Amino acid sequence: MRAAICPGSFDPPTNGHLNIIERGIRIFDRLIVAVAVNMSKEPIFSAEERAAMLREIFANHPKIEIDFFDGLLAEYARKRKIHRILRGIRTMSDYEYEFQMALANKTLYPELEIIFLMTEGRYTHLSSSIIKDVVRHGGRAAEMIHPLVEQQLRAKLCRKEWA
Ligand code: ADP
To answer: Which of 26, 40, 41, 137 is labelled catalytic?
Structure first.
């Protein structure tokens, strides 16, 4: 059984993330989407909320499991006994960051293989932070995020603004 971990912050998940996950399940028999609990930036959604959105979106995909990881990804992969990591790449700056991360993770867990999927053209500009700005300023996000994510993001941002 070929299993891989697809880790990320997913704050919130965008159509770029969903595309990488959907393409990932055509390559692997099982995909564990691992939501980062500890992030350098303060997240807008709790890890539980981010995982709940992904669970609902992929409810009909038996090959996908949604889980959490806290701390080092290499340690999480070792604990899960999975040595393949799937990541998406958009730009040269993604490449440089991913290259460093991949080398660090391989030092910590030499059996690890990090597999990259290039984004599809229409998702090159998509990031969680751009989506937050678009929705915060009342822009149309229908082509960028799943309707469920849009609804949750609007609710979250409205609540924040009135708080
Ligand atoms: P992290 O904080 O770990 O970088 P993200 O949620 O920002 O988490 O991203 C998770 C993964 O998804 C990364 O590999 C990132 O490059 C990839 N990714 C994010 N947005 C896109 C996109 N629009 N197209 C393809 N891959 C993407």
So the answer is: 41
- Residue 13 in contact with residue 64, Cβ under 8 Å? no
- For the stretch 103-117, pLDDT in tens is 999 999 999 999 999
Of 23, 80, 90, 132, the catalytic one is 90
Specify whether 90 is catalytic: yes
- pLDDT digit string, tens, across residues 37-77: 988 889 999 999 999 999 999 999 999 999 999 999 999 99
What domains are there in the chain, each with its CATH number?
3-124 (3.40.50.620)
Known catalytic membership, residue 40: no
Looking at ligand 1, which residue's alpha carbon is closest to its atom 10?
8
CB of 72 closer than 8 Å to CB of 106? no
129 in Cβ contact with 141 (< 8 Å): no
Question: pTM here?
Answer: 0.94
Radius of gyration of the chain measured on its C-alpha atoms: 16
C-alpha distance across the termini of the chain, in Å: 48
Q: Which of 119, 122, 130, 146 to mutate to test the pocket of ligand 1 (most atoms within 8 A of CB)?
A: 119
